[in-house]
Amino acid sequence: MWKRVIETYNPEHACSVNTFVCASTSRYLQTAKDKHNNLLRATTQAMSAFIGGANSVNVCAYNAWSQLYDEAALRWARNIQQLMLEESYFGQYKSAADGSYAIEDITGKLIEVSWKEFQCLDSVPLDFERFSKRIAAFAEKQRTLVEEGKRVVVGVNRYVNKSDTSVVDERAQTLSAPFEKA
Questions:
Q1: How far apart are CA 7 and CA 150, in angstroms?
Q2: Which string of b and e fits 106-132 if b means at least 16 CB within 10 Å?
Q3: DSSP 68-81
Q4: Who contacts 22 (Cβ-Cβ below 8 Å, separation ≥6)?
Q5: 113-160, pLDDT tens digit by residue?
Q6: Which residue ranges form the domains of the chain, and what is each CATH number?
Q7: What is the pLDDT of residues 80-124, one digit of tens each?
């Protein structure tokens, strides 16, 4: 996608071709009730970022949604990064996905959709209010899909850990928070 942007806008300076991708695992996709699900999510999200070619990856603590980090949560986050770099060897490859037809095919489709969205955004002056409403509408659609069971969130609407009796913070701003309240 970045290559297409550069080719289209033909920047004056060659350094514009260089890009640094910094990825982060998602607090929004964490569950408030099951830290083990969050550990698995963080691991697969970090792996996806490395495979996708991110230059750096921040792994959020399993309780990052609450912003009440403890040493154990921070240690787990660091260990996930170290597993990816030291034991999975993702740090040794420029692009771990090179040559994978399935990933390259999905990437190509994602680029096409993203390019169309980028052109729409680029064609009109950026209206932050309209853009914010689109994001809010998308988030509401995702919540509805979770509520209807059309989007699976493991530990929330499927494979729920029934032994977890922790109380969910009403202020949790996650996709699953409305469904985890006691």
A1: 39
A2: eeeeeeeeeeeeeeeeeeeeeeeeeee
A3: ---HHHHHHHHHHH
A4: 54, 55, 56, 57, 58
A5: 999 988 887 887 878 888 889 889 998 999 899 889 899 988 888 888
A6: 2-110+124-180 (3.20.20.240)
A7: 999 988 888 877 776 766 777 788 888 889 999 999 988 887 887
